[in-house]
Amino acid sequence: MIEIIPVGGFREVGKNCTAVKVDDEVIILDMGLHLQNYITYTQDEEEVDVSYEKLREIEAVPDISVISEWMPMVKAICVSHAHLDHIGAIPFLASHFKCPIHGSPYSIEVVKILAEDKGVKLHNKLVAHEINSKFKISGAIEIEFIGITHSVVQTIMIVIHTKYGALVYVNDFKLDNQPTLGHKTNLGRIAELKNVKVMIIDSLYAGRPIKTPSESVAKELLREVMVSTNSKSKAMIISTFSSHLARLKSIIEFSRQLKRKPVFLGRSLEKYVRAGENIGIIEFSKEAKIIKYRQEVQKFLKNCKRPEDYVFIVTGHQGEPKSVLARMIFNNYFHFKTEDIVIFSCTIIPVPGTIENREKMESELRKKRVRIFRDIHVSGHGAREDARDLINLIKPKNIIPAHSEIKTAEQFLELAEELGYRENKNVFIVKNGHKLAFK
Ligand SMILES: [Zn+2]
Question: Which residues 6+ apart lie within 8 Å of 108 measured at CB?
Answer without folding.
Answer: 79, 101, 102, 126, 127, 128
